[in-house]
Amino acid sequence: MTEMVRKITLSRAVRIMQNLFPEEYNFYPRSWILPDEFQLFVAQVRMVKDGDPSWKPTFIVKPDSGCQGDGIYLIKDPSDIRLAGTLQSRPAVVQEYICKPLLIDKLKFDIRLYVLLKSLEPLEIYIAKDGLSRFCTEPYQEPHPRNLHHIFMHLTNYSLNIHSGNFVHSDSTSTGSKRTFSSILCRLSSKGVDIKKVWSDIISLVIKTVIALTPELRVFYQSDIPAGRPGPTCFQILGFDILLMKNLKPILLEVNANPSMRIEHEQELSPGVFENVPSLVDEEVKVAVIRDTLRLMDPFKKKRENHFPDIYMDRKHRFPPVSDRMSSLKLQLSKLSIVRSQQLGKPLASKEEPPDSDLASASAGGASPEGHLPSICLKQVFPKYAKQFNYLRLVDRMANLFIRFLGIKGTMKLGPTGFRTFIRNCKLSSGSLSMAAVDILYIDITRRWNSMTVVHQDSEIGPGLPWWHSG
Ligand code: ADP
Fold first, then answer.
1. Could you tell me which residues come within 8 angstroms of residue 283 by beta carbon, excluding any fewer than 6 positions away?
2. Whether pTM exceeds 0.85
3. Distance from residue 203's CA to the centre of ligand 1 (Å)
4. How confident is the model over 194-231, as pLDDT tens digits?
5. What is the position in ligand 1's atom list of the atom closest to the CA of 155?
6. Is 438 helix (H, G, I), strand (E, B) or coil?
7. What is the C-alpha separation between 159 and 446, in angstroms, rounded?
8. Best mutation site among 60, 61, 103, 252 for ligand 1, i.e. most ligand atoms within 8 A of its Cβ?
9. What is the rounded distance in angstroms from the CA atom of residue 105 to the CA atom of residue 84?
10. Which Pfam families does the record associate with it (predicted)?
């Protein structure tokens, strides 16, 4: 997963989908991979500028392996890219900069949403109904050569803005430099914004992004956990970073495989003296995400539901069942939440629900035996809305075919024999396509793959025919 959501891999996965479904995937800024696509970047920008001389774009350069705003800078022209030496050693993504973000209190902000990928096969996605909004600390101005280097104006990273003198730690979840997303929605709603539509667009963005990531994930997954053998049940909590444009369209910035689950922050008590203090807003959002993830992933829940009391009892006598341990954790967490809600001066039961639209009113996963616990924050969106999105799972089906014909389980590469079997089983070899022609086709695709970029050759996959070329 970490590999899949790196900036370059994510850009490539989304681009495959953008090529197939341009309208559906226009929530991701146009991106180029550096250094490989530098010439393409220059040529495409020149072409658009020639056609429309009034176009004055800004681009954002982000190192592939960077995080927390590290190494990011803005440019007005491709010639401003700091190519000298660095890009060879540090590949990057250059991306169209969204110049007109939605502002609140004149400040740019982004949204961190937590998404649980509960299972790959079948695909199950849950979205947390509240997230974090992280604010810049300098009033926003559209990019101009004079302000491009103002990181507190353009980058919303908490890790950067915390160092600004203007950063506001707040005891409330609806003020300060880090707030709950629900407090933003509440504010927008009071101004007449259709927040059901905003939620619905965000949910679509999340589902489409996961659909873009799953084909390659499936290939990685089968090489570690071959099909048909009982393996561990994997899940992942992903952090989606989303920007709302002025016209309220959500834009995907990036996906984090290991989102921070810290619920405290550093506070400078006196110059140079720091202390970790609880962060109310982090706690409000993150505790609920972890609690619901544990609840959903509880392996004993399924066994209980499937009426296997023997296994359950057997294990129960050997060690305390996970559910018991979880119950104790849940109790602690719910106590924590109650304390917090009392501090907030509102009962948890009245905790704000996100807007319910057709798409946004996603249901929670299954009836919960722990009905006394506070409302469930993770909402199932897939397969609940599968019907609306299944037509996008074209590459997923390609990956399934690829996996099926790999031959030896646990590999990432389709060999010549597998390719032949694929052609034969799919009845693709006919009078016009002989087996000799199939072999030549295989060699041709493999050669094209091998001559591809350093970035790909360096990846874990190594030489051979990776799944995305089998199409
Ligand atoms: P990192 O992993 O280093 O945090 P991000 O892709 O999240 O990298 O970018 C850092 C910040 O830069 C984002 O939080 C956002 O504020 C800003 N940003 C990133 N991409 C864009 C973009 N295409 N348009 C506008 N702002 C962006």
1. 263, 336, 340
2. no
3. 20
4. 999 999 999 999 999 999 999 999 888 888 776 666 66
5. 16
6. helix
7. 43
8. 60
9. 39
10. TTL
